[in-house]
Amino acid sequence: MKFKAVLAVLVAGGMAVSAAAQPSGNAAPPPRPAGGAAPRSVLPPPEPIEHITGNVYKIFGGGGNTLVIVQRDGVVLADTKMPGNGQAIIDEVRKITDKPITTIICTHSHPDHTGSTDFIRELYPNVRVVMSEGTKAELAANPQVNPKLLPTETYKDRLTLGEGDDRIELFHTGVGHTGGDTFVVVPAAKLIFMGDVMAWNMAPFLPAGGAMAIAEETEKLVDAVKDMGIQIVVEGHGHVNDWAGLVRLAHFNRALVTAAKAAYDRGDAPGAAVAELKRNPEFAALLDTHIKKGLEYGNTPLARAHMNVNVAFTEFAGEQAGFGIANGAPLPATDKHKGSDPKDTAPPTPEMLAAAVAK
Is 199 in a helix, a strand, or coil? Predict the structure, then answer.
């Protein structure tokens, strides 16, 4: 699917933000509505910087996690949150080092991960901005794109930045959450940063690649990095997970496609596939029914599984899932399959949202 088909980008699995409306500088953008998502709430602001291991930190809030890697000669940032968070990122980095920002890596094109790149480039005009070819293409497809969000360099499948303890490896293993997903490996820290292919410990949101593509993408990633000794898996939002969690996600994405195909072939409704997934205790965490911190505008892991099964049904039928189905609109019945139960992907109740905010 071309990027223009999802120009109203669904940020982090719940909030639609037009990439064309990205303000520059440090002005905070207004919240925008999203089909199938919970009632709007302002994204939580960036929290104090959190030490992960060695020279690696993360900043939660204000959009996606920002990974901070302090190197010998400067600081590498992976993802820059929504527009309006540049100064907050700099302020948090300054709590741990006075070194300059030398490199920005963009895991994908969505504005909650690229939005403050322009602000940081104003402060550090010589900063390297690195992303995959696919991410550049998606950003450039917007005729109103801010040029300061575009890269200084791109790569196709794999790129090495630096050497020794400062070495960083970038991987692109296919279309999935977007057409240009980048995975950031810090070998010295035994750490991988996932972007939104893994966020809030739930199945990925699928506006671009589809259910079959995400299964292939995550399996290829696990195969590509399995011998690198990775122990720490930093998700694109929220959690710090581990290698077992990444492997479990890859297993889940494949199992979801397999169960969906079996249900489709039997003529069952999509919910039958999720019922099958629930029978596997390995997947319990990925089928949780609670709203995650920072995802008060979104939905639960269980609802996301239902959304992805609905997307899979459209793929098997040769239909177009569209933005709405990927984001929780019920799957209508057609002459090729049964429709989904609207309750499976309904927005969270006020009680669920209140419980999430109270945490």
Answer: strand
Total Cβ atoms within 10 A of residue 125: 7
Identify residue 209 by its one-letter amino acid code. Answer: G
Check residue 350 and give its pLDDT: 84
* Pairing state between β 8-11 and 191-193: unpaired
Q: Where are the beta strands (DSSP E) in 74-227?
A: 75-78, 101-105, 128-132, 153-155, 158-161, 168-171, 183-186, 191-193
The 3 state secondary structure assigned to 228-276 is: CCCCEEECCCCCEEEHHHHHHHHHHHHHHHHHHHHHHHHCCCCHHHHHH
Whole-angstrom Cα distance, residue 252 to residue 132? 26
Residue 322: other Cβ atoms inside 10 A: 16
pLDDT band for position 41 (50/70/90)?
very low
- DSSP secondary structure of 91-103: HHHHTT--PPEEE
Residue 139 backbone phi and psi in degrees, to 5: -65, -45
CATH numbers and ranges of domains, the chain: 3-241 (3.60.15.10), 253-358 (no CATH)
pLDDT in tens, 315-336: 999 998 888 999 999 999 999 9
Q: What end-to-end distance do the CA atoms of the chain give, in Å?
A: 38
Q: What's the CA gap between 335 and 93, in Å, rounded? A: 55
Q: Which two tokens stand for residue 315?
A: 């793929």
Half-sphere exposure of 269 (CA within 13 A, CB side): 12
